[in-house]
C-alpha cells in the first residue's frame, strides 16, 4: 500500500473516546517490548510516528493512527509487563477486552511474537481468546534478524506449527532492520480489510 498520509489521532483509555468517523481497524497486539511500535513505524515508512522505548510497558492506551484516511491502526497496550501495579494490569486487560469485544470495525489483529522466544503463555492465552471471539489473526514473528542463522529455520518452523495449533493460518517472519516480511504483512492487511 502506498502511504500518502498518516496521522496520530490520539491515545484513549475508554472505548467512548475512540475517534469518529469509524473506519476499518487493524489492531496490533503483543507482550511488552515485542516490537509493536517498531512494526507500525516500518509499515508506514516513518521512524517515530509510534513511539518506541527500551522500557517495556510504554503503550498503556489505545493509540490510534489514521492511514490514508481509509484505515485505522490501533496499537494496544502490551501485556506481561511485571513492573506495573496489579490494578493497572487489570485496567489494561479490561480496556483490551472491551475494545476487542463486539467491535464491528475491527477487521483483524496482528498478533506479534518475538521469534527468539516463540509463544509465551500470555501469547497463547491471547490467541485462544481471539479464536473464541472469532477475530481473524495474522501472526508476525519479529526480530528475526537476531536469530542465529543455524537455528532460524527450525525456530520459525516450530513457531508456525504452534500458530496453526492455536488457530492461526501461519506466520510472517519480520525484521525492522531489513524490512523482511513488510510486503507480506501489507498484503495480509489488505486482504483483511
Characterise this structure.
- The protein has 193 residues and is an alpha/beta fold.
- 33% of the residues lie in helices and 22% in strands.
- The chain has helices at residues 36-43, 86-100, 121-132, 149-165, 182-192; strands spanning 6-12, 25-30, 62-67, 71-75, 106-114, 137-142, 171-173.
- A 7-stranded mixed β-sheet has the order 1-3-4-2-5-6-7, sandwiched between helices.
- The two termini are 12 Å apart.
Are there runs of 5+ residues with pLDDT below 50, and where?
53-58
**Spatial strand sequence of the major β-sheet:** 1-3-4-2-5-6-7
- Number of continuous helical runs: 5
Please give the radius of gyration in angstroms: 16 Å
Indicate the proportion of strand residues: 15-25%
Helix content: 25-40%
Structural class: alpha/beta
Number of strands: 7
Largest sheet: 7 strands, mixed
Mean pLDDT: 87
H/E series, N to C? Answer: EEHEEHEHEHEH
The dominant shape is: globular
Distance between the termini: 12 Å
